[in-house]
Every structure is written in structure tokens, then in C-alpha cells.
Write a structure and sequence with these properties.
This protein has two helices and 23 strands. The longest helix is centred in the middle third of the chain and has 7 residues, at about 145-155. By secondary structure, it is mostly beta strands. It folds into two domains: about 1-160, Cupredoxins -  blue copper proteins (Immunoglobulin-like), CATH 2.60.40.420; about 180-339, Sandwich (Immunoglobulin-like), CATH 2.60.40.420. Strands 11, 12, 13, 15, 17, 18, 19 and 21 form an eight-stranded mixed sheet that branches. It has a five-stranded mixed sheet with strand order 14-23-22-16-20, with no helix packed on it. A hairpin with a 5-residue loop joins β2 (about 35-50) and β3 (about 55-65).
Length: about 350
């Protein structure tokens, strides 16, 4: 990190530097190389979601500035990032509204490029994160400043790493697929979304972040009153096609999932099962529930045996009591339709 010495890293190190008061810095990227892919993110931009009961829920999002102006729009979750294994990637973060970071979750870059503010620095204006994915799979990215609050407010998105040959297989020589769908499960406590202070709850300040009481439940940005019909959540395929589901639990609940057709669990947390002799894929019979904790990702291959509609049920369960959240209302349902 020698080329960071002309930045705030020259300041005297104290305990608070890596606790309550991390560096706000905009250093040059250490050991910077030419990028194969450059992604420009702006954080954080605010938008409102309309809940089923009519309530407006404020969320924050990373805006992808790499997209042409006419195609650019804020989304919840934030827009996905998609690259290929082995590429050198630059994520250029600009922070017009307060310091933020980008942590590429599951990727293993250098400390300065890991986006964890309390062990390096928080981006005061702009910084280019450099990283190179060593394996394909399903990952995600998120802000790692005041993580509990910023993640809940929407500063996260899927990060998909394809094999060098591109989409169509899990990894080189691995399972193939014809249809792909991403499911991002999330729950919302409206109290968190009423907080406008980006620093709220840091360093012992009690703003209630120790209590999470979700009232709204979503799948891929869709509230659970519309998940049976929205194209972002339901899956359409033809008989004989293999379906890849990329499932991320972005909620603060235990996510219990049951599928209406048989599935094969082929990857977990960006690590491919069946690629190594000591780690095989796992069959999941239809109707058999399985669970994901916060931030877990499952990649599942579905091969429905006949035409028809196959139900999908997701239950958001309290991490201590195991009860379905919001007095049993914490359920999302969708479907896989095979024609």
C-alpha cells in the first residue's frame, strides 16, 4: 500500500481509525492494472417503493453509471454486476451523498480493495476498486459502511461471475442451463427506512438497530402481493429446458424454501459443488424444505418432468424463535411455469 502514503493514511493511527472514525479517503488504486471491465457506480441514490398497504418506503441504491443515459434507472435491489472468471475488473465508486464503500462479497481482493471501511478506508469522493474473480458463481456486492443499516436500505446487488466462455454453464465443463432466473429474497422493517442519517447507530448510538421487525417481504424487488405474476419472480420455460435459479437471501431472517419440482443444488456461496472430488452436488426432492441464512447464495438446477405449474414457497423465519415473521405473514410465493 505504498502508493497510499500521500493520502489520509499519513494520519496518526488510533483505535478510532479502525472503529468509530475510519479514514475518509480517495487514494490511488494500489498496483493498478488495465481493466478488462469497468463499472461505474454512484452511491447512494434515493427512491421510494410503494408497499401493498400504500405506504411509501424509502430505499437507497447504487446507480450504474456504466449504462447509457437513456437506459439508466434506479432499481431495488441495485443493478446486477456481471463479469467473467479471470477478468480484471475496476469498480469505480463515486459518493455524492456521504461516504460509502463497495464490498464484493465472496471475492478475495487486497485489503484496500475489499471495501470494508473499518479495516481500510471509506470513500469520501471516489475510488476505483480493482479485483479479479478466481471462480465463477453467484456473489453479491454491498456497502460496508454502517453495514446493518445500509444493506437493509438497499445498497446491494447481485454479482454474477460466468466462466470464461460466458453464460450457459455453471463453470467450464460443468452443468449447463437454458433458462436463468435470479431470486433475491428480502424483508423490510419500515423503522429502518425512516432513518435518514447515514451514520445512525454507529459506535454505540442506540437508534433501535438491535430490533428488526419486518412488515414487508419481497422477492427480487417485488412485494409479495405480486410475486405470482411478475416476470422478475416467476419462471417461464419449455419442457426439456434446464433452469438455473440463483438464490440470494438478502433478508435478516432465516429463509426456508420449498420447490414444487425436483432440484439439484450445484453451488453454494460462489463455490461450485461437483467440481472437486470431495464436494458433490445435492439432490433436493420436490417439496423438501431447505434453509438459507443471511447473505447465503444457492445455485439450483431445475428440470421439471412435465408441462404444468410448479409452486414455490419462501418463509421468512425469525432467527431466534424460528417462527414465521410478522405473525405468519412473512411468506412469498411464486411459480415455475413449463409449457
Amino acid at each position: 500500500m505504498s502508493n497510499l502514503e500521500d493520502t489520509a493514511f499519513e494520519e496518526r493511527l488510533t483505535f478510532s481509525t479502525f472503529g468509530c472514525d475510519p479514514f475518509k479517503a480517495d487514494p490511488r488504486t494500489p498496483d493498478r492494472e488495465d481493466a478488462d471491465v469497468t463499472i461505474r457506480l454512484e452511491g447512494a441514490e434515493g427512491m421510494d417503493l410503494r408497499a401493498p398497504d400504500g405506504r411509501k418506503i424509502k430505499v437507497w441504491s447504487f446507480e450504474n453509471k456504466s449504462v447509457p443515459d437513456g437506459q439508466r434507472r434506479l432499481t431495488y435491489p441495485s443493478a446486477p454486476i456481471r463479469v467473467r472468471q479471470g477478468q480484471i475488473v475496476h469498480t469505480r465508486l463515486s459518493t455524492s451523498k456521504g461516504p460509502h464503500t463497495v464490498h464484493h462479497h465472496g471475492i478475495e481482493p487486497s485489503t484496500a480493495n475489499d471495501g470494508v471501511g473499518h479495516v481500510s478506508f471509506e470513500v469520501g469522493d471516489s475510488y476505483t476498486y480493482q479485483w479479479q474473480p478466481s471462480s465463477p458463481g453467484t456473489f453479491f456486492y454491498h456497502c460496508h459502511r454502517n453495514t446493518v443499516l445500509h444493506f437493509e436500505l438497499g445498497m446491494f446487488g447481485l454479482l454474477i461471475v460466468d466462466p470464461p466462455s460466458g453464460p450457459g454453464s455453471i463453470y467450464e465443463g460443468g452443468p449447463t442451463y437454458d433458462v436463468e432466473q435470479a431470486w433475491v429474497a428480502d424483508d423490510m422493517d419500515p423503522r429502518f427506512h425512516a432513518i435518514s442519517n447515514h451514520d445512525a447507530g454507529l459506535c454505540g448510538l442506540d437508534v433501535g438497530l438491535n430490533r428488526f421487525e419486518p412488515k414487508y417481504f419481497l422477492l427480487s424487488g417485488v412485494f409479495n402481493n405480486r410475486t405470482m405474476t411478475d416476470s422478475r419472480t416467476m419462471v417461464s420455460a419449455k419442457l426439456g429446458q434446464r433452469i438455473l435459479i440463483r438464490l440470494l437471501n438478502a433478508s435478516y431472517s432465516i429463509l426456508r424454501v420449498a420447490l414444487g419440482c425436483d432440484a439439484e443444488w450445484v453451488a453454494c456461496d460462489g463455490r461450485n459443488m461437483g467440481q472437486d472430488p470431495w464436494c458433490d452436488t445435492v439432490p433436493i426432492p420436490a417439496g423438501t424444505p431447505f434453509e438459507l441464512t443471511t447473505a447465503q447464495r444457492y445455485d439450483l438446477i431445475l428440470s421439471p418432468p412435465a408441462r404444468g405449474t410448479y409452486p414455490v414457497r419462501m418463509e421468512f423465519r425469525h432467527w431466534i424463535t424460528g417462527e414465521i415473521q410478522d405473525r405468519g405473514a412473512g411468506v412469498v410465493q411464486t411459480k415455475v411455469v413449463v409449457s
